[in-house]
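Write out the bound-state structure for zinc ion.
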Amino acid sequence: MAVETNIEALLAKDGFSCSCGKAHYAKVSRVLIDFGALNKIPELIGQYNAKKVFVFFDENTYKAAGERVLQILQTANIAYKTHCFPGERFEPDERSVGSAVMHFDPSCDMVITVGTGCLNDIGKIVANMAKKPYMIVGTAPSMDGYSSATSSMIRDGLKVSLDSKCPDIVVGDLDVLAASPMRMIQAGIGDMAAKYVSIGEWQLSRVINGEYYCGDVADMVSAALKKCADNASGIMKRDPQAVRAVMEGMVLAGIAANYAGISRPVSGMEHYISHIWDMRALEFDSPSDLHGIQCGVATLLTLKVFDYVKKIVPDKDKALAYVKRFDFNAYKAYLSENLGAGADSMIANEAKEGKYDPDKHAKRLDVILDKYDEIIAIINAMPTYDEVYATLSAAGFPLTAEELGFSKKEIHDAFVMAKDIRDKYVVSRLLWDLGLLEEAADELFPC
Ligand SMILES: [Zn+2]
Ligand SMILES: [Zn+2]
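---
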């Protein structure tokens, strides 16, 4: 049976029970990605019986679509209040959320954000607090938060993922999306390419840790990703088919994460490398780039690691001796030195996870050695570094971390530290389990 990637068809059968044992819910109710989709906004508001809406945007997204949205509301006689976040750039932090909340008019019965990225993250928080239906009018296909129920925020100076509200309605007008800055369209294909890694690592963890896995959800993400890869050469031409593939991919990825109830289908080691760079940017003002651009580049780095794993001959004694030598206190100091205050939560996580516990390691190692053929078969089925390099290159994507301004040491250290961001089994944890983490780091990312 063909894999269903038609979003309307998926939403129509929402809440279906799957062979994986779960009932899958999308959380988002309506998704409209089409030319002229902005004109449908009054109808969509009508479906929620909203009489007055609150519209958030910033100076850029006002020009991109906000002004048109307000005209359309006016013509349709829908009352509205607005708040424009001032300035070119703002952070998704206490100040921005405070500004949004203090300008919000509680007499409004729907929240609408015109934007993407952190504007959407803030809108989701406000709609959640106000307990109002929420519509996101996307201005760029740059990230996969359009149909997710979390917001990526900075709280007390640290990057956190907060539970917020999944948009009820996602509007993606292809005229608007195709006119968005090229770097933001490319960011979308980068965040999509990341799914090559996340799906592969999800399968690895199923084999190694017996983690929950749904093949249907994985296939859905892979099919959406294939559409993006097939259309990659249209990105630079702003081909609407390519832009549609990326936007639909971004929304489907969020739906896949909702279905699975975990972020496994959409993020893995490459997201954690990007996260490390974000943490360093906050702490040390080091370089940073758009989420999807960093994730795409980190996907290439991670695929280099997978290519490396294919050549490994596992050695049980070596792995056990490595773990015996491993000095967690020295490692904690290394994390703090390279990440500052952000390292504290990672160190606290390890106290709960115990991934470096020698007994747990020994058990895991037995499984890894026992199932090594299966592990290598999963990795062999993933695309190679060269294949994804060619796809991203066709989209005019930046292809190296150096191009984004990262030093060789920042690349090397991000690879080593990425596995400590969350309790998720990623490929660098497989290397640690095999006693090869530093060897791999020095060979692949010398500094
Ligand atoms: Zn399933
Ligand atoms: Zn992402």
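---
Residues 18, 20, 22, 24, 214, 216-217 surround zinc ion (ligand 1) (CB under 6 Å).
The chain has two domains: 25-180, 184-213+264-444.
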